[in-house]
Amino acid sequence: MRIAMCDDEKKFLNMLKELIAKSYPDTTKLCISEFESGEQFLSQFKANQFDVIILDIEMKKLTGLDVAEKIRETDKSVIIAFLTSHQEFAPNGYEVNAFRYLLKGQPEHMYIKQLRSIFNEYHQTHMRFSVQMSNTVFNVSVSDILYFEIFKRTIVLHTRANKYQFNGKLSEIEKDERLINFVKPHKSYYVNLSYIDNIEPTTIIMKNGDKIPLSRNFKQFVTDKFVSFLTARC
Question: What is this structure's pTM?
């Protein structure tokens, strides 16, 4: 994974580098680039050069928001996160499709939780789930999967655009390490937390309007996982 860090305070760059090392399971697969100003970063930046970019909002001259706007002119997909001392800056990030904020001065375990969530998002975006229907194999992006639904030994995979049917067991789906942000709300469903809109007493409402049954035995676990997921994205 290619990560860029941009902060005009060297101590925060060093701290962040240490936290990233603690958050990622295999540091040999990381390539980290450090920049001490927005100007320095933009002078070397090219589209698709990085997978994750972490920007300090409150830099001199070019702020992190200024840099993010320039990035989005040529790179719409790179994950952008902001490092800031002030939470009130967060709404401004929505304009440049940046929904992640690392608050300076927070406890180390919070940094690690948030960084792991960022890395999980990257892996989901780049991972594929293979589905065989008749003689055709479809490679579905994990980030496009809404949920799995099972009828006896038939699994229906619901994505943002299509549905796919194949034979299998939900227990096998649950063991798949690619499905990091999925949760089981009912014995017949496995749901992507990214697409949950809200949770009602007996139902999960998905962002596309689909309603998923929520069993009483799974309710607390699902609620806790959803809250944890949302918190990690703050």
Answer: 0.63
| Residuewise pLDDT in 10s, the chain (234 residues) | 899 999 999 999 999 999 999 998 888 889 999 999 999 999 999 998 999 999 999 888 899 999 999 999 998 888 999 988 866 544 444 444 455 788 888 899 989 988 988 888 887 777 888 888 888 899 898 889 999 999 988 999 999 999 999 998 888 999 887 888 899 999 999 999 989 999 999 999 999 999 999 999 999 999 999 998 887 655
Cα gap 156→233, rounded to integer Å: 29
The span from the CA of 164 to the CA of 132, in Å, is: 9
- Per the document, the length of the chain is 234
Q: Which amino acid would we find at residue 61?
A: K
Residue ranges of domains in the chain, CATH in brackets: 2-125 (3.40.50.2300), 129-232 (2.40.50.1020)
Helices (H), 53-167: 64-74, 108-126
In sequence order, what are the beta bridge partners of 155?
150, 166
Q: Where are the alpha helices (DSSP H) in 45-107?
A: 64-74
- Whole-number Å distance between alpha carbons of 1 and 119: 9
Residues 55 and 82: beta-carbon distance below 8 Å: yes
Strand, coil or helix: what is 116?
helix
